Amino acid sequence: xxxxxxxxxxxxxxxxxxxxxxxxxxxxxxxxxxxxxxxxxxxxxxxxxxxxxxxxxxxxxxxxxxxxxxxxxxxxxxxxxxxxxxxxxxxxxxxxxxxxxxxxxxxxxxxxxxxxxxxxxxxxxxxxxxxxxxxxxxxxxxxxxxxxxxxxxxxxxxxxxxxxxxxxxxxxxxxxxxxxxxxxxxxxxxxxxxxxxxxxxxxxxxxxxxxxxxxxxxxxxxxxxxxxxxxxxxxxxxxxxxxxxxxxxxxxxxxxxxxxxxxxxxxxxxxxxxxxxx
Length: 278
Description:
The chain is mainly α. It has helices spanning 17-39, 46-70, 84-101, 106-131, 156-163, 182-199, 209-225, 241-259, and strands at 7-10, 13-16, 145-146, 178-179, 234-235, 239-240.
């Protein structure tokens, strides 16, 4: 199957599928946080504060991480060049700062963000598919896809020189090869994770336990999909930088699950005016 990117212009403005889905992801994440605040009888305005912080910090972090990792300063102003872990770190730092500024308990903020992160990531990966970024290695599975205008196009030359993929002898450098649509694999996996986290949002463990579960599941998902990704940052043999980061994320999540498995009574300080209803 041959797929082309979703890109169109509105006057002088270029609109991409990634931009549309990124916006949808942040809006959906905000709704998820708002819904949880409403269920807890807390002020819903805090959802907007968290989303704004995540948008700014996430985009900056994702761009900077990509530019450093690939030594590509031009990625800072391009439509591509976003690394999830960089976005996670940047967004994490911004949300922590927002939580401190609004005097909201950090554990509560993380708890609210767990399902929001999962659904936001899933929608973001739809955007990656729509611009044909972050695809996989060549394959012959029936659902394999060719991206002749991808970032970069899935030609034999690009896959070989940019990602170190072994290409069969006799393949023309300009031939567009079919690859794993790893973006869609992640969409399916993270939507399943969101469904589970949403079902467990009323758990009986301590506040922040749900965030630990998110870290474990998201880390495992990313670790596994990396085996199929077209990447050029492999270390320690077949493992990528993202896989090493994913392993660390899983360990942190497992520690949170163990530390906060018992119920607790998290009190909302009176200074947290943004959480006051109405």
